[in-house]
Specification:
globular; four-stranded mixed β-sheet; 104 residues
């Protein structure tokens, strides 16, 4: 789902990610300057959607849950050497947060 004017970053600052029933799709698409996931992007996963991020440089990646594990994989292009540790750290943090949320 690519909804003009919707901002995952703004929408998840203070609470959960929400979309109206009319906007539901298979995934949420987000166009950004950079490919890296942002701090609250995991909230899209908690809402039940994978998050597809496209960057200005043409790369595309998806943040998703597969068999209970948070993963961020490229669909077009590759992560740079400097992005890999940032992605790993984000995935560890997101997994811990989602696991804690599911315990509630």
């Amino acid at each position: 789902m690519d909804v003009p004017g919707m901002s995952v970053i703004r929408q998840t600052l203070a609470g959960p990610f929400n979309v109206s029933a009319a906007q539901h799709g298979d995934a949420v698409m987000c166009h950004r300057d950079y490919l890296l996931p942002q701090i609250n992007d995991f909230k899209v996963l908690i809402a039940g959607f994978p998050l597809v991020i496209s960057s200005k440089d043409g790369r595309v990646a998806t943040l998703e849950i597969d068999s209970g594990h948070v993963q961020f994989r490229t669909l077009r292009g590759e992560f740079t050497a400097s992005e890999i540790p940032v992605v790993r750290n984000y995935l560890d943090t997101a997994q811990e947060t989602i696991d804690a949320d599911s315990q509630k």
